[in-house]
Amino acid sequence: MRPFDEMRRMMEDFWMAPLADFGRWSENFIPSVDVKEENDQVVVSAELPGMNQEDIDVEVTQDSVRIAGEKKQEEKKEEKGYYRRETSYGAFERVIDLPAAVDEDRAEAEFSKGVLTITLPKSEQARSKRKKVEVKSA
Question: Quick one: pLDDT at residue 53?
Fold first, then answer.
C-alpha cells in the first residue's frame, strides 16, 4: 500500500466516524463500500438505501472511483414522539482507490434495491502485469 493511500484511508476513517451532537447522531450520510478484485475486473459496491438512481453520480479514472450524491429527506418532521433517530440524510462524496488500473471507458454501473454496483474491467496493462515465477527447490 502506498503511503498516500494509507493517509487517505486514515482521514476517511476519521471523518466517516459518527459525529455525536448532544447524544444524537448527526445528519450525515456516508455509504458503506466494498471493493473486490476478480481475475479481469474490479467490482465496487456501495449501499445507498433510500436513494434514487438520478441522485447518484459516478466518475471513474484509471485508479479511482468517485461516488457522490444526496440522500434526500422526504419531509422535515418535528422531533416530537421520537425516542431515537439514527436515520441520516445529506450530500456525500467518496473517492475509492482501486487495487489495479482499470479501463474507465468500459466501466459499467447498475443500481438495484439500494445497492450501486460498478464493474470495472482491468486495463490491458494491469492484466498483463502478472508474470509466472518458477519455484525452485532450495
Answer: 92
Residues 103 and 124: beta-carbon distance below 8 Å: yes
Residue 43 near residue 119, CB atoms below 8 Å: yes
The CATH fold of domain 3-128: Immunoglobulin-like (2.60.40)
- For the chain, report the end-to-end CA distance as a whole number of angstroms: 30
Percent of the chain with pLDDT over 70: 67
Closest CA to 117 of 43, 42, 31, 29: 43
**What is the domain partition of the chain in residue ranges?**
3-128
CA atoms within 13 A on the CB side of 111: 14
What does R_g of the chain's alpha carbons equal in angstroms? 19
Of residues 41 and 4, the one with the higher pLDDT is: 41
